[in-house]
Write a structure and sequence with these properties.
The protein is α+β, with helices and mostly antiparallel strands. 32% of the residues lie in helices and 15% in strands.
């Protein structure tokens, strides 16, 4: 998620929380309620919609037997249109798992190392990307322990204002005119805030830096690398960093905590939180992420940092739920929330998307996946 520290459930910015929005007593759905998973998902979705702030929900469920997308609620409150398997959502910081996968490709092929000085993957000198003899590394960037600030340009003052209604506009204003070139220019004068590897501090800028490094070593834009290495092989034709008119027509309407229309993420969100996708595309991505025999996937899920409650891999969070390992990553933009939850021992996974940033939506999505999984688990 662009606006909170990893592994912790929060609504957008940890500020956009709390309002209840009246919705229909019966939430519309395409769930046929026939199989055990249909029924388990329906029970979990009913709990999710007990918070009437929520608008719509799409859940892609992947099992060894196949995949199915379940849709609930409204993609647009004004028109009453429901979400569909091909509805387009911002996936926000779930984007970071894609960037991590590209980094895993680079490590596996010998183009990058996890622990070496990351400056070798950049053009030009960056003497500021080291502190007390410790340079920024790929592992530090992937686990939010690089010492990088949250954002470049610096967004701390916008957050410090503690004004949830003004937050999106403030962040969007700072992002005006920003791109990969301006990011690297500003990076040269950005000091590290801590010794690399020492402190966890959530950083979108760190993942933009990974994207810049990937562009340098491969000699192609991040969007092209994403398409070549992940999107085209997985046939994710509706996943992109830039919406076409056809995709825009399928976009869900995002709502903030007040039930008001929320803006889209700014164009410079990029490798940190800039991907758009659909439930049916993400089902293919989940299937790929469940392939433990794939060396790139396996590498991206290998723990880099060990903690009391969870370990951190290449962006992914590794923990136990009811005695079973799970791998997850969440995200939240100004008007959408997302979760990717994998159960590798059961070869089952969920991609969950909601068009709201109500209080605790990310956590509620994760709970929905866990509850549905264990309701049908042997």
């Amino acid at each position: 998620m662009l606006l909170h520290r990893p592994g912790k459930s929060a609504c957008a910015a940890a500020l956009l929380c709390g309002a209840s929005i009246a919705t229909a007593a019966t939430v519309p759905t395409d769930n046929p309620r026939l199989t055990a998973m249909d029924k388990a998902l329906d029970v979990a979705a009913t709990t999710f919609f007990s918070n009437t702030c929520h608008a719509g929900l799409s859940v892609a469920v992947v099992t060894p037997e196949g995949s199915r997308v379940y849709d609930y609620g409204l993609a647009n409150r004004a028109t009453g249109a429901p979400p569909r398997p091909d509805s387009v959502y911002e996936i926000a910081s779930v984007t970071k798992s894609f960037t991590a996968a590209l980094a895993a490709y680079a490590v596996y092929s010998g183009k990058m190392s996890l622990d070496g000085d990351f400056r070798r993957y950049l053009s030009g000198a960056y003497p500021n990307l080291t502190r007390d003899g410790h340079p920024v590394t790929l592992a530090g960037l992937l686990t939010h322990r690089s010492g990088m600030p949250r954002d470049i340009p610096d967004t701390d003052a916008v957050y410090a204002a503690q004004d949830p209604r003004a937050l999106p506009a403030g962040l969007i204003a700072l992002a005006q005119g920003q791109n990969g070139k301006t990011f690297l220019s500003a990076l040269k004068s950005t000091p590290l805030r801590s010794i690399p590897g020492a402190v966890e501090q959530y950083s979108n800028a760190g993942f933009l830096l990974i994207g810049a490094g990937l562009e340098h070593i491969y000699g192609v834009p991040y969007a092209d690398l994403l398409k070549k290495q992940i999107l085209e092989p997985l046939r994710m034709a509706s996943t992109t960093l830039a919406l076409t008119p056809a995709l825009k027509a399928r976009q869900v309407t995002g709502y903030d905590m007040f039930g008001e229309l929320a803006p889209d993420h700014p164009a410079n969100a990029g490798a940190a939180w800039g991907i758009w996708s659909t439930p049916e595309d993400l089902a293919r991505y989940v299937r790929w992420q469940l392939d433990s025999a794939n060396p790139v996937v396996a590498l991206s899920h290998k723990p880099l940092v060990h903690g009391t409650d969870e370990d951190i891999a290449m962006a992914w969070h590794l923990e136990q739920a009811r005695g079973e390992p799970i791998i997850s990553h969440g995200g939240g933009s100004f008007g959408t929330s997302s979760q990717m939850v994998l159960f590798p021992h059961s070869n089952q996974g969920f991609a969950l998307l909601a068009n709201d940033t109500c209080k605790g939506t990310e956590g509620a999505l994760k709970k929905l996946a866990i509850d549905a999984h264990f309701a049908v688990a042997p």
